[in-house]
Amino acid sequence: MRVCETVSLTIRDGRGRTVGTLSISLPGQTSATSTPPPLIDLRGDPALDPALPPVQLLEGAEYRYAFQPEDGFDLPIRVEPRELFSPDSADWRTGRMRPGLYTGTLTIVVLSGGRQLGTALVEVRSLKLDYLNEYRWMLEQIADSMAELIMERFAPTEQRFRFDQTAEATTLYTRFAMLKWLFSGEAFEAAIHQILAQPHRAWSEETEWRKPGQPIRACARVTRSLARPGPREYGDSPLPFTALPKHIAVPRTEETLDTPEYAKPASNDSTSARPTDMLDTPPFLVHVG
């Protein structure tokens, strides 16, 4: 995370052309190192959530902005959302930006004569340090409550639903977000903890050949091994045998976690699977009546 006093945003049109640069900076009385920082730039940070813009502001803070057009786009402009920008003059090239209590992704739109020149995205963070998880928890609760209302058990009518394995999400990120939601929940974490704390075990048995002078635990198989035919050694022995086998088969069991429950099924496809293949057919709830 890079704490900044000034960041520059590239304003691009619908075809990806650069129409100008929007600079956002802190006023002189605002410290860049305050907690939480009012202006951060996460471009190039591998820990950045792909759903969030890398340039992030803070709710309730105040900023200075300045727009510098590219050649060919030096036109009278206006910046939207209008309620968040207070221009210094009628040309809207410089001024103040106040996100207020709005939080989330903010689309900054540069207009000229009612025509959109280009846009840029910033994230307005909440003052709450863990606001993303709290918002997601709130949305999960809303989704659960709405689903319960739709499928109200005691209503005079009923709704029927089924999982459609053939339906596809609108975007790949929708599939990713669905899996991320499943894998980031408390139930999934508890399941992983259960697997690590009490993994499935199996006991594999191996035969070890030992000489009569080595320690051997008595068991039925050792007894049969003493009586089996084969090369023998003669000598003093407390056992009722005049000779002992040169080698005695001793069973040994070892614990293993390499069980079929953990084995990955083999694939007949010689091509390597893409990381996104598992997202190709996610189940979606479909209303059937």
Task: Summarize the helices and strands and which ones pair or pack.
Blueprint: E1 2-3, E2 6-12, E3 18-25, E4 40-41, E5 55-58, E6 63-69, E7 78-80, E8 85-87, E9 94-97, E10 104-112, E11 115-125, H1 131-150, E12 161-164, H2 172-183, H3 186-197, E13 202-210, H4 220-227, E14 232-234, E15 243-245, E16 248-256, E17 284-287
Key phrases:
289 residues, alpha+beta, Immunoglobulin-like, six-stranded mixed beta sheet, 18% helix, 32% strand, disordered C terminus, DUF2357, DUF2357 domain-containing protein
Query: What are the segments in which pLDDT stays under 50 over at least 5 consecutive residues?
Result: 266-289
Average pLDDT confidence is 79
Q: How do the SSEs run, as a string of H and E?
A: EEEEEEEEEEEHEHHEHEEEE
Q: What structural class is derived from the secondary structure elements? A: alpha+beta
Order of strands, main sheet, comes to 1-4-5-11-10-7
Strand content: 25-35%
User: What is the overall silhouette?
Assistant: elongated
Distance between the termini: 50 Å
**What is the CATH architecture descriptor of the domain at 2-125?**
Sandwich
**Helix amount, in percent?**
10-25%
| Contiguous helical run count | 4
User: How is the biggest beta sheet arranged?
Assistant: 6 strands, mixed
The Cα radius of gyration reads 35 Å
Per DSSP E runs of 2 or more residues, the count of β-strands stands at 17
CATH C-level category of the domain at 2-125:
Mainly Beta
Task: Write the CATH fold name of the domain at 2-125.
Answer: Immunoglobulin-like
